[in-house]
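Summary for the funding panel

The consortium committed to producing paired sequence-structure records for every protein in the target list. Below we show the first two records in order, beginning with the earlier of the two.
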Amino acid sequence: MSSGSGFSLPSRTEMSIDQLLQDADHVGGVFSTGYEKCNILTNDKWTQDAGGLPKHTLLIARPLLEGDEIVAEEDVQNAHRLPEEPTQFERPDPSDTGSTHALLLRVTEPADIPQEGRLRTNRFDAMREAITGDGGGTPSPEDFVDVLTRREMQYSGVQTKILGTFHQTTNKDGEEELTLTSDVQTFFSAGHYVVYKPKDDALQWIASYPTTADNNPVKLGNVRYTTTDIWGDHDDVGMYFDVDEFIGAKTAVFGMTRKGKSNTMKIIAGAIENHDSGIGQLIFDPSGEYAYTNDQDRECALGELYDESGKISTVYKFAAEEESDRFRPLRTNLLSRSNLDVVKEYVRRELLGENADYIGRFLSTEIKSPSEIEELEGGDRNRHEWRLSAYIAVISKAIGEEAYPEGSDATEYISVNDDVLDEINSHARENHEKNEYHGVPLGYYQGTNTLVDFWEAVAHNTDEINDAHSGDGDWIDDELDNVLEMLRVSGSQSGYQKLTDLRKYHNPDRDEDVAQEIYDLLADGEMVIVDISNGLEKVVTSEKERIVGKLLDESMERFRDAEPDEELPKIQVYLEEAHQHFEEYRENESMNPFVTLAKEGAKFEIGMAYSTQEVTSVDARVRANTANWIVTHINSKRETNELSKYYNFEDFAESIRNVETVGYARAKTYSGEHIVPIKVSMFDTEWVRNNTQFGVKKDGEFIVSRPADRD
């Protein structure tokens, strides 16, 4: 192992127990042990020299006596006398052990030693004498007991939890490697386990286990047992995670607001993008901090990262009216026939809960897509074309003046008999003329919404138009009339007026469905940041659900149609304030795409990182299938009690509630054998420079150069 606190994660084949104890501090020995816990005898001097023994400190206990050094069977039978050949040994060097195993321990609380009652009395007497002596309550060193008594009083006990056993195993290549297993095969009552506090590279290796240089390690933070640092011993001992463990898996980041959840999510996203740029990443950005910097010192944003080919992300934004190099508009053109499915979904959402009969008829009317209509013939084709055209007219009327962009000439053609057209023109404001080859053009032409004008005339004069129709049956059949009812307004909140909020979702400058566009980018391995900081809550919720719904639909379809050896696109989704999404449809989870994504995403190669301050708000089945856990400060005992049901988080419950330092967290990765307390790294220019191949560009200039541009 290298010295110092830099990056050092040797392969498990290069490690041994003696290397774990390299430069370790001796802190005591085990005087009572079992399969789950053991008690350690320690001394104030040893703990001070080791920089203290905070709660949750990781310790290594290795047996001083093993094998032939243990009392032989015949000597055990003759327990009334000493062995004929007493065991001979010298005080060992902690880094020269030859031990077959060592126990990994974690400090949990103080423990009584056999002399505790007497020592407690001595300490009480000594303190009483010191504070009531001649110094008037200000004790001096001379006021304390003699050196011999003080030496005895410095001994105390510490209880630890046994996290596992380090020992050598043989890997599939036939090589010996150091392995940590999370149980104990046996313990030696008279084994004289000596206990050490590992540090520097050894502690880094233990904290990161089983991640080594053989994997894809990325630094998540530095090991921190406490936020208090009396002796200045907080070295930069890293805790590294294997990026592959986060790809396609669920990761939970729990904690109160402003305690570092977003920063942690940025590190995960940045690490995955650096590891494999072919993985699509979808980030819903509720406050704009993923897309742009928040102007804190050294801070940067994912939206400002560049690789050799350019910007690594595409940002969608509600406030963006036109596409630019920085943003793309999030809203969709609701009058484009290619987006009919999107329009119908929005209409369904807007009219959800409406009980009027005409609304029910409108929603139940079949509106075929242009491609479906193309497959029809004759009168059937014409009737479905009229129905679609009238449906779009209702949407256009609801959107109002913002329906079409200024200066546009957007028209579609429908076939209309001359007698019917003449009757319609007798009631319409505009004169609608037939094109010789294509029929009647309807849409937006020379500043006039001819589509709405045409169908409003039809809606309000159905009897006259049907009378004028010389063909078989009525020109306006029941299905078409169900649509036209939305144009017959009888009050301030009836008909199309119930759909006026559609204007919030409409962008006339876009032809493609934004949800489809985002999915295509994700399938191509792009990072997409959806800035939802400026949208209305209702609109934001609707768009997020639609985007996630599209992601699920496309993934399910690919999953069904995939060839046996075909790989699905790998996609990661990042969701903040997860409690808002997992709770909203709790009574009807089948309607909630976020719950579906969390439960079924893994089989479609979709991973999820979600963050929230409410552990209980996340469905228990989602929690049970969450692979990686990162927990900062949570102030609720109810929430920490729920958290305590998983792994060994009950050991950390008090510190989770009490320690409010930003970024102080407890991390448990999928393959990690134990929870590690850490101070999460800051996602800043330094982290980007040290952990990725990206540059950082602000205001047109690189403040962190890309590797190819560096000297």
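The next record, for a separate protein in the list, is shown here:
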Amino acid sequence: MVVCGDDGLAQRLAAELRGVYGEQVTLVVPATGRRVRQPVVGRARAASAALLDRMGAAVGRSAQNAPGAPPPDPSGDRVVQASEPNEAAFIEAGVDRATALALVYDDDETNVRAALTARRLNPRLRLVLRLYNRRLGQHIEELLDQAAALASGADGRPGDASTVVLSDADTAAPALAATALTGTSKVVQTDGLILRAVERQPPAPGQVAVPGLATLALLSATSNDPAGADGSEGSGDQGPQLLPDAAAVRAATGRATIVLEQVSYSGPSLRPGRAGVPFASLFSRRLRWSLAGLVACVIGLAVALMVVADDHPLHATYVTLLNLFAINEPALNRPTSEQVLQLLSGLVGLLLLPVLLAAVLEGLGTFRSASALRKPPRGLSGHVVLLGLGKIGTRVLTRLRELDIPVVCVEADPDARGMPTARRLRVPVVLGDVTQEGVLEAAKIHRASALLALTSADPTNLEAVLYARSLRSELRVVLRLYDDDFATAVYRTLRAAHPHALTRSRSVSHLAAPAFAGAMFGRQILGAIPVERRVLLFAALEVAGQPRLEGRTVAEAFRAGAWRVLALDTSVGEGGAVPSGLIWDLPDTYVLKAGDRVVLAATRRGLAELLGRRRPRTSG
């Protein structure tokens, strides 16, 4: 496996492939620039790796002293330093002999150019690309797959080449948005497939727990404390237990659970944006009420004239409008009642002129400011304050607006990536440094329901959360933090200082790395949900060739703490990566056949073991 990247996702992906799947990894990083601290993937594995490193120190010294040897890396990966991912760097990294290549640079153009070079160098290479542009990703995926098919047909050798385009922002956005909404809902949504889970507190004495489709996890027994925040799937006594069996669920009294509530298909997840400006936003509420009052006065005058003059309704309305615009003959020889109505109509006409002028000015101002940033409305409350409009913040903003959740964004850079999206969605934006006083107050943080701190700087996110909690101690907060140890310390401190407020820390690379790692083995990871500081994966797999699934019943195929079959895909011949027809209420006696395709939940270790990338764990 070869991983190329310039940020924390590359480091975490390499650690995922090495620590969970036991793969040999070559890491290609820039020759200059700040190196991100290697993430820890399991304290036990880290200790074991350190022991193995000490045991092989003698052999390593001779290799390191050899001419042209790559620089040593504490993680055990082979590291190739290259200023850019060109053909020379790929040859040095062994891409021509590799099974899979992950291109996870932060720049889309760099990943596309590198993918074209790698496909030309090795047509049978499995490619995984990190692209933010969805439309470009679709075209590149089709192009590279076509090139691989032509190359395989030319030399007559069967190839296992495939191209998978993923986005770390799209992978993490549903979990971040769901956490901000309720703090407990966990949703995986991929091209219409919806897997919805909910966190349920233990029932009170005398109450019966509401069953779900499946129990996905048992949370920590001590205040949801993120034991093992390093991201491992070990089932310690204090940490969460993923995919427990029925006996473990019955024995776990007083522990909250994560229960699967729904598995469904609802069509494409992205709704087209509404074009134009809504009528309600053209005019202010005060102006709309003024116009409605004048219309009511005109109707009342027309009805009064119809009664007084015994006139036809249409003719009475016509005369009233003439009087309103002062273009009718004076009612000199008419009865007094009609003269009074004419004077009142003229008075209403005088009141109508400034209202019409105000309507024209407001309408022009609305169209002029349609491309400008909106300010938070004066009476806004119950909204979500989103800090940062980068890649992650933009995707989360889109997801929140799809759910019709009011959002106020805070961004220091007026040219940030998400500014056009905020203008298009007409979302209020406060320009300013979130660490400065008055910025969060301008975003109405004291009346907000949640705060999402998604900037790329951990100290900025922490400072914003601490300041927001000083203004409102019960505010629900979600932090984007990369460093696991730092995230654990922040989580525990905030939980201790504010025990009645919801606090969550999320790492985008921690949520995205399992999906990228899974795609490097030629399978489709549908998504992941965070379980405290751990990750539970959802994948769509073919039963054929899986000895732990094929020929077994659903009950026999279930492995506690490793994997569990959730649904059966009934779509035939479509060949898509995402299931479109699902049967989720499978009986335990259903026998999985070679032609079946299933959706299952799995831990990272369990998925690696299921697909033969790791030896089964024994109790001895």
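Regarding this second record: Residues 33-74, 223-237, 264-277, 572-580 have pLDDT under 50 and may be disordered. Residues 119 and 253 are 54 Å apart (CA to CA).
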